[in-house]
Every structure is written in structure tokens, then in C-alpha cells.
Amino acid sequence: MDKKITIYDLAEALNVSPATVSRALNNHPSISFNTKKRIVSYAQSSGYRINKFAANLSKQKSNTIGVIVPKLNSPFMSDALSGIEKVANEHNYNLIISQSLESEQKEKLNAKTLYDSGVDALMVSLAYETTNYEHFEIFREQKIPLLFFDRVDYFPNCPTILIDNRQAGFDATEHLIQQGCKNILHVSGYLKRNAYNNRFNGFKDALYKHKLKFTPYNLYETDLDPKKVEFVMEHIKNSKEKFDGIFFANDAMAVACIQALLKEGVQIPKDIKIIGFNNNPVSEIIQPNLSTINYPGYELGVLAGQSIISHLKGNINIQSAESILLKHELIVRTSSISNK
Amino acid sequence: MDKKITIYDLAEALNVSPATVSRALNNHPSISFNTKKRIVSYAQSSGYRINKFAANLSKQKSNTIGVIVPKLNSPFMSDALSGIEKVANEHNYNLIISQSLESEQKEKLNAKTLYDSGVDALMVSLAYETTNYEHFEIFREQKIPLLFFDRVDYFPNCPTILIDNRQAGFDATEHLIQQGCKNILHVSGYLKRNAYNNRFNGFKDALYKHKLKFTPYNLYETDLDPKKVEFVMEHIKNSKEKFDGIFFANDAMAVACIQALLKEGVQIPKDIKIIGFNNNPVSEIIQPNLSTINYPGYELGVLAGQSIISHLKGNINIQSAESILLKHELIVRTSSISNK
DNA sequence: CTGAAAGCGCTAACAA
DNA sequence: TTGTTAGCGCTTTCAG
């Protein structure tokens, strides 16, 4: 059982042609029930395993989906990947996952490798840095389905799956305003990534609607790495007019900042009301519990997986590049509630 | 540029043989510098891309590493995967990641698929359920490197990478004892998984060393799903002799339990001292901050990746199936400190 | 250093 | 329903 068995070996042993063996093993319609049974059962007992290299070469497809994410170890992203994997697995697709680590160059390299590896489809969540999208062109040229999720950009005929960030940003901000905030700071991710840009726009929309003024001081742009919380703190302390509310573009930074603020004796929500984004598990553990926007990573992954697989199976006509807006949800906890 | 270019096309265009093109593209030693240069540069300009299906078939290897984990969306596991991916990526290996979702059957299926997909190596963290290891035999037979990490079991000649769970369990427990605890509960994962079994043994070692008695009440076995915290709470409340310390086999459950205990008016660490396991980010956010054992997921991933790649590149002689014990570390925070 | 040619193992169009 | 026969595109001996 050490040498590998091929369909030729099976064919010889059973006195049929390799083609018949192949048909039997692939549930091809035109084969008699009996020979099929005979072949399949013999294949099993002999320990035959298909050689996918050969099958892939012959079919020019791999049953493999490539995924590129900025980093796979964030609660949101690992939830999304988990959802994608589950769906893919159920449909017998393998997942090749790679990280861009927020670098455009790595993203390009990964895209190239995945293309060369012959993935049947590619799912991408963009790196912070990426501004140029040439590396995805080849997928389009070769008609390999391409889907963007969470951190997306406009790409003709490519489905995107994410939430309505502008509306979510609006909802978060308006909530703070309704709690009485007049001078709100928005701590944003890099604005060139339009997930963040849209949250910021929603923020401005809400200020505008409620006739609150917006100055450059009301925005602080960062990579949202919680380790850099001190810079946010500095910005907060240096502002002439004290902020009475902060809307963070993610929970991790919000939590880090709450801890820093509490250490300085600031009272939350009394002095400053705070809302985050994502509904990261920590938001229910920090004291006070963090209000946030629920952005369901796992569900997003499942939907993204289903979408791409429908594509691959031809259940969706390609041109109707369907984009999906997931529902977000405002979750009000104590960090943002006025104490009346 | 729509039709795919093969080495035959290049060969024809340049008046050389396909073999020469192949050699040029693969840095084969026996080829003249000039023809190589000529071929490589033409290949570039013509937009040639290798067809890995064919290369894999011919070489019977794929530059792909398979990974099976219980679930990929836990902080620990996603850190580990991130480390593995980084190393793999640097060495031009692709990673196919799949989840067993704690099911032995799925694990078997995944192993089969990955084998059929022709992975060059397999890395596994075992599902809760798995008790039978036949599905890995084929890898051994075919001399495909196999490595277990975190949730491992004994498998002849297979490297394993993890921490010394017994010692870590001992350290955690002894710490509680040194803080004055006399009746300590251990909330364990499933004991058939020996990561947990060993933590439990370390727990007993410490009790024994310090002459504390151990009764079945001092152990509560669970799947560590924080949603099931109520059962743990029940156990705690039903115990005749009140516990004054709890050692949790993971932080997620510890945190859930702390929240439940606080809600009941229990004071931590005054009434009950608590220590967790993993150094999950939440441990620094919960009030009181959770003492724990640091189990560095990312570093583990990096080491595991390096180990398997050394194997693949033949830098390590196969039989010295080197196992690595990562250093763990006791992290003392407020949840376990006696108030003297 | 280069070329010819034989695979790698499977699939699929065409014939029978 | 089954068999024959070309590929799929690359690698690699073996000659030259």
C-alpha cells in the first residue's frame, strides 16, 4: 500500500478502461449502475486515492478559493474566516488563506501566488495601504470570480459584502448626540480605506443634521492599533474645547482609550460618552460596558462564502454582480448613556 | 493576453526547447546565463504565468501546507494561525486551513481532503472528540510530515509544539495556594484531550505537594464554552465546602465566571481568588484584572511553521522528530492576590 | 549547455 | 454504456 494506485491500475484489475473508472469515480451519468458499483467498491478496498494534481490539470480548476485578509488574528476577521471556511468546507472547497499584513506589496504578491496556484475564486479584504488594484486585473481577465468583503473598494462587476458604514457611522453619532453630546470626537481608521471614510461621512452627516459644527479637531485619524492609544489621549487632552463624546471606528481602540481615560480620572459616561464599532467581545467586559455597532463577522463570512460559491456553481448570473449590505445594529450599553 | 501562454509558446518564440525554458524559469544550474536572461525577460514581458497544476503533477508536490484546527476564531488559535501563515508565506508555501469544529468526523474528512489535495505537510491541533488517529496514518505511510500543536497526542515520530501544560497547571495552582487558598476548584476542558489532562495533573501535583486534599468536587469538566457558565456557577454554589480559589483552564470561561460571581455579590479576590489560562486579551480588561498563564499563540505558530518548513527543506533529519516545549509564564494580576 | 521525448494521472470528445 | 485517444503544461532523464 505504499506505491500509489492510479486509475490505470484499477482499470487493469477490473478489465475496464481508465475512462470508465474515471466516470465511475466521478458519478458520471452515462455508466451502468453495476460497473459503477463494482469499480467504486474495488477502488475503496484497494485504497485508491485520487491525484488532484492530475485532475486539476485536466480540468483546469482546483476547487480551491483564495482569501487575502489584512491580518487573520482579529476577532472580526477570524470570525469572518470561520464563516467562510464553514461554507467552503460544506461545498468541498478548500480555502487558501493569506495575510497582507496591511502591506500593498504583500497583497500584490499574495494575489499573484493565489492566481498561479489556480484558485477558482478570490475573496479579498483590502490592506490599509492599497491604492492600486492592478493585481486584481488578471482575475477579471481570466474570469475568475473576485469578491471584496469588509474593506472593499469599487471594482466594476465585483460583488462586495459589508455593512452600510455611512449609516452605521451616522447611527452611532446620532446616538451620542441624543445623549446630549455637543462636541464629539471621531477616532477613525485610515480614511483612504472607504470603510472608514464612510463611517466618517456618517459622522459628519449626523453632526450636520443636528447642526453641530465640525472642525478638524473633531477627527483623529489613526491605524487603530490600541498600542497607540497615547496619541489619541494626547489629542483629547490638547483640544481647547473639551470633548463630551467619542465615536471610535473600532472597539479595540475604544477599550484601550476608556482604560486610559479612567486612569486619568475621567468619568464615563458622565464626563465623556463613548461608542465603539464592531461589537468585539471585549465591549461586554470593559467597565463601563461599551456601546457599539454590531458588525457580524461570522455572518458576513457565511454570506460571502455562499455568494462566491453560487457564482462558482453558476447559480448566479455573473453580470448581476450582486453586492450585499449586511444589517448593522446599534447596541446601547452604559458607556454612552446620559444619567438623567 | 487572454489566452494562456505556455512554455511551448515561449520556446517557439525564442527558438529554444521547452526544456530550456523550464530550466531558465526554475533557476536550473545547467543553463547559460545569457539564454536564461533572454528567456526570463521575455517570459516577463509576454505575461507568462506558470501553471502550477502541471508543475505539481510533474513534481508531485504542491508547496502547500495543510492545517486543521478545532476552530479558527479563538484569540489563541487565530494568533497561532497568523504566525504559521507568516512563516509559510515567507517561504513561498500556501496554507490550506480547515476547521474540525471539534468533531472527529469532520477532522477525518478534512484530513482526507488535504491528503487528496496533495499538501506537502500537515499541521494539526486536535478536536475535542478525536480519540482515534487512523486518519493520520496515510500521511505517515506516504512520508508526509505531520506536526501537532497545542492540542496534541502521542504519535510516534511526530513533532509536537506546545507548552508544558502540567507545569503550567502546577504553577497556576501553587500560586493560588501561596495566596492562601485551601479549597480550590479546577474548571477543566475535556480531560481526554491531554492538554487539559496535563493541566489537571499539574493542579493535583500542587495540591499534593501542599498537602491539600482533592475530592471529585474540586474538579469540574466542561467544554469551556463561556455560554455554559451557569453550570459552573451551579457547581460552585452547590459545593458544601465553599471554594476559596478557582483555576480555569481558559480565560474566556474565567471571565464569564467572574462576571457571574460579581453579579452574585461575591468579592474577587477577597472571597474567591481566580486564575485563568492563555492570557487572552480580555484578561487585562476584566475588573479585577485576571491572573493567568501566558501561552503565546503567535510565537507557537511561528515555531510550528519554522519546524515544518525545516523538515520540508530537509534541514532537519526526519527521525529526530523534534518536539518543542514553549515557555509559559505566570502572570499575576489582581484577581488572585491576597489583600494583606 | 541544450534538445528530444517520456512521463505525471486524470478528463473528455469522439467512436463504437 | 464503454473504449480509444488526445491532450492538460511542466519536469526530467538521457543523449548529444
Automatic annotation (TrEMBL), chains A, B:
Is RNA-binding among this UniProt entry's keywords?
no
Q: Which InterPro entries match?
A: HTH_LacI (IPR000843), Lambda_DNA-bd_dom_sf (IPR010982), Peripla_BP/Lac1_sug-bd_dom (IPR001761), Peripla_BP_I (IPR028082)
Q: Which Pfam families match?
A: LacI, Peripla_BP_1
Keyword Isomerase found: no
CDD domains (alphabetical): HTH_LacI (cd01392), PBP1_LacI_sugar_binding-like (cd06267)
Molecular function as annotated in GO: DNA-binding transcription factor activity; transcription cis-regulatory region binding
Source organism, top-level taxon: Bacteria
- Domain named HTH lacI-type: residues: 5-59
Mind listing the UniProt keywords for this protein, alphabetically?
A: DNA-binding, Transcription, Transcription regulation
Which PROSITE patterns would you find in this protein's record? HTH_LACI_2
Q: What is this protein called?
A: LacI family DNA-binding transcriptional regulator
* Organism field: Snuella sedimenti
Q: What is the lineage of its organism?
A: Bacteria, Pseudomonadati, Bacteroidota, Flavobacteriia, Flavobacteriales
